[in-house]
């Protein structure tokens, strides 16, 4: 049959390109090994209709086939991700749609709110099963390298608040406050008066509950609000894992709005994921396409150079930039391990499709950060064209305060 000859030729081509610890099992009992070594991953194709996904194995195609139940895969999730990436890299040309394409995404308050609800309102219980006890869903800071996740997340929050020198009584705005961990820490340890905004109803409800339980309702206000609707003046502004949802074209407006909310001597911390492609392209071989379709609808990652440029366009001066890519690779790897460990509990909270999406997304993100396909930068800035007195002369204050 035609498909048998085509598949056999494809398997032969892959074996000549690279030795993969992969076994392919078909619906008719046929079996193909892609190396002479014992396979770490077994890929099962239950029907001939799934072959087009396999014969053009972009990360988008393989991911779609898996989450839609067109194929099944057995093996450790890190091995699955490694094999998928090698298969894509060795068999596809890094051109056109499979290279780091740049998408054009239209943003509005309604569409952004819908995208946020899709990603974050799975259920709070779902996130609790793989995040740390404080439910911090952003890159941790492994200062010494031996911290557990919960400790590293607290260190990340302290690292942020120390960098922007949060003082007792400061009015702090946290854009995209998640489940409230940063504003709780800012009020409890640093004495700030905080406002946290989110578009996720689940995050809003739990963050308010946590604030009330901590007895901090007089110092922390949680709002279900779009950042574009925030008014007032704030001494300190944080945005952690949020500007990825803003849109490339909206970044100048985003930073200009932050500037309009900032006190003259105020400071801003923007902590977010960036593309490592100078043209703001997505991760290669269809990885970004998969994330857009199944994980973060309408998400866009800028290169750090665009971040710095649009901050200046928004009237902000950049004071400090730190790359935490390695820290996010480790964070995602821990999340992926937690997800695997709690798999049976997670399956009880969601359907098989969403379970599969998140399984490959978390492990795939760890791989992407590890391979420098995506990165994470913390950028401290303040109003431009102001006297240069906002921060100490050196960065020593950041580390002295954390000892």
TrEMBL record:
Q: Which classification does the entry list for the species?
A: Bacteria, Pseudomonadati, Pseudomonadota, Betaproteobacteria, Burkholderiales
Q: Which organism is it from?
A: Herbaspirillum hiltneri N3
This protein is called Cyclopropane-fatty-acyl-phospholipid synthase
The family line of this record is: Belongs to the CFA/CMAS family.
All copies of domain DUF7884, residue ranges: 14-91
What are the entry keywords? Lipid metabolism, Methyltransferase, S-adenosyl-L-methionine, Transferase
InterPro entries associated with the record: CFA/CMAS, CMAS, DUF7884, SAM-dependent_MTases_sf
Top-level taxon of origin: Bacteria
Identify the Gene3D superfamilies for this entry: Vaccinia Virus protein VP39
Span of the signal peptide: none
């Amino acid at each position: 049959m035609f498909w048998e000859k085509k598949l056999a030729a494809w398997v032969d081509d892959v074996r000549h390109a690279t030795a993969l610890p992969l076994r392919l099992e078909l619906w008719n009992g046929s079996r193909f090994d892609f190396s002479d070594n014992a396979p770490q991953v077994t890929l099962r194709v239950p029907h001939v209709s799934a072959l087009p996904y396999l014969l053009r194995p972009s990360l988008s195609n393989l991911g779609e086939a898996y989450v839609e139940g067109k194929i099944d895969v057995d093996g450790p999730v890190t091995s699955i991700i490694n094999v998928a990436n090698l298969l894509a890299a060795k068999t596809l040309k890094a051109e056109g749609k499979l290279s780091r394409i740049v998408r054009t995404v239209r943003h509005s308050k309604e569409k952004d709110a819908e995208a946020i609800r899709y990603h974050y309102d799975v259920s709070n219980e779902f996130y609790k099963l793989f995040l740390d006890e404080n439910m911090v869903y952003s890159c941790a800071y492994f200062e010494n390298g031996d911290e557990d996740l919960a400790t590293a997340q607290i260190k990340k929050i302290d690292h942020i608040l120390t960098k922007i020198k949060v003082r007792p009584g400061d009015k702090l705005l946290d854009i995209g406050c998640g489940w409230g961990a940063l504003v709780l820490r800012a009020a409890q340890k640093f004495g700030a008066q905080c406002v946290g905004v989110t578009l996720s109803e689940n995050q809003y409800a739990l963050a308010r509950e946590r604030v009330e339980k901590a007895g901090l309702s007089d110092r922390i206000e949680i709002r279900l609000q779009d950042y574009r609707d925030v008014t007032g003046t704030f001494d300190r502004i944080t945005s952690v894992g949020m500007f990825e949802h803003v849109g490339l074209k909206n970044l100048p407006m985003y930073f200009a709005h932050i500037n309009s909310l900032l006190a003259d001597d105020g400071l801003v911390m923007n902590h977010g994921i960036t593309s490592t492609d100078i043209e703001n392209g997505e991760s290669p071989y269809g990885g970004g396409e998969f994330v857009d379709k199944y994980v973060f609808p309408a998400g866009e990652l800028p290169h750090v150079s665009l971040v710095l440029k649009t901050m200046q366009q928004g009237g902000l001066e950049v004071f400090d930039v730190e790359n935490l890519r390695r820290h996010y690779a480790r964070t995602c790897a821990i999340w992926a391990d937690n997800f695997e460990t709690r798999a049976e509990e997670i399956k009880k909270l969601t359907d098989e499709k969403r379970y599969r999406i998140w399984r490959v997304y978390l492990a795939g993100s760890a791989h992407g950060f590890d391979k420098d396909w995506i990165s994470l930068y913390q950028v401290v800035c303040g109003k431009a064209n102001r006297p240069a007195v906002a921060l100490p002369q050196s960065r020593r204050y950041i580390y002295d305060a954390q000892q």
